Amino acid sequence: MSRLEGKVALITGAARGQGRSHALHMAAEGADVIAIDICDDIASSPNPLATEADLDETRRLVEEAGRRIVTATVDVRDRVRLADAVDDAVTALGGLDVIVANAGISAFGPAVPVQGFVDAFDVDFVGVVNTVSVALPHLPEGSSIIAIGSIAALASQVNRSDGLGLQGPGAAGYGLAKSMLCGYTKSLALVLADQRIRVNAVHPTNVDTDMLHIDAIYRTFRPDLAEPTRADAEIGFTFMHAIPVPYVDPADISHAVVYLASDESRYVTGQQLFIDAGAALKAGL
């Protein structure tokens, strides 16, 4: 298991969920890890975010896998602090080869205030731009940049007749941010191609993480019910997909991330990879 042997990967939003999964899968393939997370809540977001204890657990699990890890508690919206944290971590680990811009929040539902639009867009798009901007000077030839997008966001940008479009100011900010990653990664891929630095985006459908399993999202997917349960929401989740499953596992996204980080994908750039159980097909994307 050495597809990433000798590489150092920066992962934002690494304290839990998809980010932790990416860290563990990359460590299992030989990578050392720089793990960054805000480890604090954002007031406009209806779901609790990761904690310092979560980030410590990511550290423990990566070290248990026999790899080095540097962690930092940083908000990706703060470019100055983010740059300092990345610079220090790269110095400690001796380099940087992969960026996984994974940090994101969802703020679905009509009860979310207008500030939810600002926060969701700033974390989900500006946070990606900040991460790439501060880490790019450290990348050598042959490096890989991976942005984590969203099929749900892309689907919300087209006309939906099924009642499952994203709702509220926070969802609008989320949808705009994630959809803009398509153009951003394609343009950046062209700009960096001469340096042999690859840039790709991975767009998951619903992923079985803490971020998905909250009341606000259950209500978004089952607006016909006053108090939808997880089982109720799973019916709505499944309706999104051509393959009849409610969600995918974080590992399904991590497998794609490992591939795009490895030299196996050395000529793959500018791509939008859907890990979505056929959701894009159903949405007409």
From TrEMBL:
Keywords: NAD, Oxidoreductase. The keyword Ion transport does not apply. The keyword NAD applies. It comes from the Bacteria. This is Short chain dehydrogenase. InterPro entries: NAD(P)-bd_dom_sf (IPR036291), SDR_fam (IPR002347), SDR_subfam_1 (IPR023985). SUPFAM superfamilies: NAD(P)-binding Rossmann-fold domains (SSF51735). The lineage of its organism: Bacteria, Bacillati, Actinomycetota, Actinomycetes, Mycobacteriales. PANTHER family: 3-OXOACYL-[ACYL-CARRIER-PROTEIN] REDUCTASE, SHORT-CHAIN DEHYDROGENASES/REDUCTASES FAMILY MEMBER. One of its GO terms (molecular function) is oxidoreductase activity, acting on the CH-OH group of donors, NAD or NADP as acceptor. Gene3D superfamilies: NAD(P)-binding Rossmann-like Domain. It comes from Mycolicibacterium vaccae ATCC 25954. Belongs to the short-chain dehydrogenases/reductases (SDR) family.
